[in-house]
Amino acid sequence: MKATLGDRTLTIFVYVALAIIAFTTFYPFWNAAVISVNKGMDTALGGITFWPRAFTLENYEVVFQDSRILHAFYISVMRTVIGTIAAIICTAIFAYGMTKRELMGRKYYMIACVITMYFSGGLIPTFLVIRSLGLMDSFLVFVVPGLISVWNMIIFRTFFMGLPIGLEESAKIDGCGYWSTFFRIVLPLSGPVIATLALFTAVGHWNDWFYPSIYITDEKLIPIQTMLQQILNSNIMTEQMSQLDSASQSRLSAMKSITSKSLSMATMMVATIPIVLVYPFVQKYFVKGVLVGSLKE
Q1: According to the model, what pLDDT value does residue 289 have?
Q2: On the CB side of 247, how many CA atoms lie within 13 Å of its CA?
């Protein structure tokens, strides 16, 4: 009886601890969402916690009226889609090649790859390489440097090595080469690991603000996260508001309740919600994809 009571107490403690962690993690996001739909002047009075006190969508109207924010959103979407597809394909091809025993020097290639996970050239050498390649102020700077991920390559390689050998042998008998075998047999069977790594890669692309802040000076190539970082760290929102067309400015002047904080929160939600909505569609692949290679027969 004591053991049963102790088990119940432990279970309740675990549930309470998980609830506290969940609340602590979710509340900042919820509070930002509440502020984004609350009148800015009312928010400045304080006391906005769980629910908006003076509901309004004027903050989002101003955000979507600024063509530069919409263009930055478009750049982020294109970067995430193109960068993720290119990275997954290139990394998977690399990993497939590393599974071949007939590859000369495969062991040394693997050692060289692992070393790059612990040591890097640093920011200045990387900047010099990017500049020498002519990638400054180019959309390719979002794609090319991230084509290969050693960590993802190792996960892909482990998954490929777990596939039945008979599949590739049958393909060879049917006349398939390495490329045909990879694209027609291996890749279609790699759905769980592709979905998981694609999500992680997409989140990395979407949330990255530091890379563009170094290599991009052209406003037409700035993604939404970098613009959001600039908004939070400067008065750029005030400048953007002053550069709206006359019709937008007259409408904005009528919106007396808008403040820079409320606009910042609205921009933050616009930059955050799209990537959050992706998770439910690939969540079912997490267990299969993340635990690839963790068990042995």
Answers
A1: 52
A2: 2
Strand-pair partners of 38 = 55
Cα 151 to Cα 259: distance, rounded to the nearest angstrom: 43
Please give the structure tokens belonging to residue 219. Answer: 């406003």
Residue with tokens 């403690």: 13
* φ, ψ dihedrals at 55, nearest 5°: -65, 140
Rg of the chain over all Cα atoms, to the nearest angstrom? 25
Distance CA 73, CA 206 (A): 10
- CB–CB of 113/79 below 8 Å? no
CA distances from 70 to 60, 142, 202, 218, 270 (A): 12, 18, 19, 16, 10
pTM of the model: 0.78
For 79-112, the pLDDT digits (tens) are 999 999 999 999 999 999 898 888 888 889 999 9
Q: How many angstroms separate the CA atoms of 86 and 254, rounded?
A: 46
- pLDDT digits over 183-207, tens only? 888 888 888 888 888 988 998 999 8
**CA-to-CA distance for 188 and 194, rounded, in angstroms?**
9
**Distance between alpha carbon 286 and the CA centroid of its chain, in Å?**
15
Question: Is the distance from CB of 216 to CB of 138 less than 8 angstroms?
Answer: no
Query: What is the spatial distance between Cα 265 and Cα 258, in angstroms, rounded to a whole number?
Result: 11
Cα distances from 290 to residues 1, 136, 261, in angstroms, run: 39, 34, 38
Query: Quick check: 143 pLDDT over 90?
Result: yes
Least confident residue range of 56-60, 140-144, 256-260: 256-260
